[in-house]
Design brief:
The chain is of the alpha/beta class. The protein folds into 3 domains: 1-49 and 89-108, no CATH class; 121-181, no CATH class; 185-366, Rossmann fold, CATH 3.40.50. It is 36% helix and 21% strand. The chain is built from 11 helices and 10 strands. The protein has helices spanning 2-22, 24-28, 31-35, 96-107, 141-155, 201-221, 241-246, 256-269, 290-304, 325-334, 358-366; strands at residues 41-47, 89-95, 121-131, 174-183, 186-194, 224-232, 236-239, 275-283, 310-316, 347-352. The strands form 3 sheets. It has a 6-stranded mixed beta sheet, sandwiched between helices. The longest helix has 21 residues, at 2-22. The two termini are 46 Å apart.
Length: 370
C-alpha cells in the first residue's frame, strides 16, 4: 500500500511539474509568485488536475435523443446562471531548486563549473553502517527486525504460520556515522541598481523579477551563496535586500560609484581564490557624462573582471527614454578594445523592455555556463 501511495504521489508531482514547465515563461514574469516565497519554497497556482476515472451515470440520453420537434435549434432552450462547478485553482509548493532545474532545462542552460581552488570546507555527517549501540533516534528498524528474525529462527521459536517477530535488546541495531569534510563551492552575487529619478516602480519590478531568477539559478549551482546589494545615484551605498527593492531617490546618476563600492567590498571580504564572484548592474542606461562612462569601462577592466566570473549589465526601459550605457559597454567589450577583435566573454549585456523579455535575458546571461 505504501509503495502504491508513493507511486501515485510521484505521478502527481510529474503531472504538476509538466503543467508548471508548460507555463514557465508566464510564471517567470509574474511578480506575485515571488511574494509567495517561503522557506526556499514557492507557492504556484495551477488549475485542478483531473485524474482519469470511470464515472457511472444515466446513459438513456445522448446526441439526437430526447424531446424536441423537427426544425428546433440545438441548445435553444432557456439558459440559466448554471449550477455546475467551474475550474478551480489550487496552489502547490515547489522548491526553488525544482524551479531552477525547470528553468535550466527549458532554457537549455549548461551547468556552471565553479572556478578556482576552493579552500573552504563543510563538515557533514554521513551514515556509513550500523552498530549494536546508539541512541533511540538512530535505531535502524529493518536491521533490528532482521536480527530478531535470525535469532528466532536459530532458536527454533519462529512459527511461519504465526509470524510474530519480537526484537529484544540485543537485536537492536543503530545507524553509525562519520564526519565527512568536502570542499564547498561558494559564490557571492552583487546586485547593483541605479535608483535615480528616472528609475520608477515598473523598472524596479523588472529588476526584482530578473534578480530573483538569477539568484535561483546560481543557488542551484553553488552550495554556499551570499548576496550583496548596492544602490546608487551619484553616490553608492550598500543596503539590505528589502531596501534594495523599495528605495526611491531623485537625483543624478554616476554609475562608477557603484563599481567603486563593489570593488571595496570584494577587497575586504572575498578572496577570488575561494569565491566565485558574479556582478550584475541594472540601470536605464542614462549616466551623468561621457567621462564617467570611460571611468566605468576602466573600473570593469582593471578591478572587476580580474576577480569575477561574470559582469552582467541589464538595461531596463525607462519612460523618459533609455540612455546609451549599454552601447558604451558593447563598444568597449563585445568588439574587443585591445585590438584583438575577440571581446571579453565575461561581460554579458542584456536589454529588458518588458516582463516578457526576462526569459530571454536569463538565457543571455547563463547560456555559456559561466
Amino acid at each position: 500500500m505504501v509503495n502504491k501511495i508513493e507511486q501515485d504521489h510521484q505521478r502527481f508531482r510529474q503531472i504538476v511539474r509538466g503543467k508548471i514547465r508548460k507555463e514557465l515563461r508566464r510564471f517567470i514574469s509574474r511578480g506575485e509568485m515571488i511574494g509567495r516565497e517561503g522557506d526556499r519554497f514557492v507557492s504556484i497556482p495551477v488549475h485542478d488536475i483531473d485524474i482519469p476515472t470511470f464515472r457511472f451515470g444515466d446513459n438513456s440520453g445522448g446526441v439526437g435523443m430526447g424531446e424536441g420537434d423537427e426544425g428546433d435549434q440545438a441548445g435553444s432552450g432557456r439558459q440559466g446562471g448554471g449550477d455546475q462547478p467551474g475550474r478551480h485553482v489550487m496552489e502547490v509548493d515547489v522548491s526553488l531548486e525544482e524551479l531552477a532545474d525547470m528553468l535550466g532545462e527549458d532554457l537549455e542552460l549548461p551547468r556552471i563549473e565553479p572556478r578556482g581552488e576552493h579552500r573552504l570546507t563543510t563538515v557533514r555527517d554521513k551514515y556509513t553502517g550500523v552498530r549494536p549501540t546508539g541512541p533511540a533516534s538512530l535505531r535502524h528498524f529493518k536491521r533490528s527486525y532482521e536480527e530478531a528474525l535470525k535469532r528466532q529462527i536459530a532458536l527454533g521459536t519462529y512459527n511461519p504460520q504465526d509470524p510474530v517477530v519480537i526484537p529484544i535488546r540485543r537485536d537492536m541495531r543503530y545507524r553509525s556515522w562519520t564526519e565527512v569534510r568536502k570542499p564547498q563551492s561558494n559564490a557571492v552575487i552583487f546586485y547593483m541598481m541605479d535608483v535615480s529619478g528616472s528609475m520608477g516602480d515598473e523598472q524596479k519590478e523588472l529588476v526584482r523579477l530578473e534578480a530573483f531568477w538569477i539568484d535561483a539559478w546560481l543557488r542551484r549551482n553553488y552550495e554556499g551563496v551570499e548576496s550583496r546589494y548596492i544602490v546608487h545615484d551619484v553616490v553608492a551605498q550598500e543596503v539590505d535586500r528589502r531596501t534594495f527593492y523599495s528605495v526611491r531617490e531623485d537625483g543624478g546618476t554616476r554609475i562608477s560609484s557603484a563599481f567603486h563600492k563593489a570593488h571595496e567590498i570584494i577587497q575586504s571580504n572575498y578572496d577570488p581564490a575561494s569565491w566565485n564572484i558574479y556582478l550584475f548592474h541594472f540601470s536605464d542606461g542614462d549616466n551623468s557624462s561621457d567621462s564617467d562612462n570611460r571611468v566605468c569601462v576602466e573600473l570593469i577592466q582593471r578591478n572587476l573582471l580580474p576577480v569575477s566570473n561574470m559582469f552582467g549589465y541589464c538595461q531596463v526601459a525607462s519612460p523618459y527614454g533609455s540612455g546609451n550605457f549599454i552601447n558604451v559597454l558593447r563598444e568597449a567589450f563585445e568588439k574587443g578594445n585591445a585590438g584583438d577583435g575577440r571581446g571579453e566573454e565575461r561581460v554579458v549585456l542584456s536589454r529588458v523592455n518588458s516582463r516578457d523579455d526576462i526569459y530571454e535575458s536569463l538565457r543571455t546571461f547563463f547560456k555559456a555556463g559561466r
